[in-house]
Design goal:
By secondary structure, the protein is mostly helical. It is built from four helices and no strands. Helix 1 packs antiparallel against helix 2 and helix 3 packs across helix 4. The N and C termini lie far apart (50 Å).
Length: 163
């Protein structure tokens, strides 16, 4: 398949998705949150609006330039593993809660991409160093997101079975 055809199809699908999501979020109007930035529809409108603009730009670029080179495969091992990790995160979010499932999600993604990029070079001290770095990134990211949404914005995050 030509690259411009692949870009056109991908841009069209993403544009359709973003328009439907934008309309849904606009109709949803979350009135339960006290602050505008704490409303769920605010972020859906923001991100789907950005996605729609970028998708439209991709469609326009693919129709204008029409690069003749052959496109690389979209569905690769990296994409498949990432989709599986995201699906596991979504499935575990209600059961384990935000903190635990997000920590597992980030740790799994970081571990996969680190092992994939560095491969067999990870042994001994290098492996220990990467584990510490991934653990620190995971802990800091989950703590900051939890603090931002739960404490500052007052959004109730999934607590799991024990909440």
């Amino acid at each position: 398949m030509k690259k411009w055809v692949q870009d056109l199809i991908l841009g069209g699908i993403l544009l359709l998705f973003s328009v439907v999501s934008f309309v849904y979020a606009y109709v949803m109007q979350d009135a339960s949150a006290k602050y505008f930035l704490a409303r769920a529809d605010t972020y859906i409108l923001l991100w789907t609006g950005i996605l729609g603009i970028l998708s439209a730009a991709l469609v326009v670029r693919s129709l204008r330039s029409r690069p003749e080179e052959t496109a690389s495969r979209i569905v690769t091992k990296r994409v498949g593993v990432t989709v599986l990790i995201i699906a596991a995160y979504i499935a575990l979010l209600g059961t384990l809660g935000f903190v635990i499932s997000s920590a597992l999600f980030l740790a799994a993604l970081l571990a996969f991409f680190t092992v994939e990029s560095k491969g067999t070079k990870l042994r001994g001290r290098a492996l220990a160093r990467e584990i510490v770095i991934c653990g620190a990134i995971t802990a800091i990211t989950v703590a900051v997101v939890y603090y931002l949404f739960n404490v500052l914005l007052g959004v109730r995050l999934p607590g799991g079975l024990w909440r």
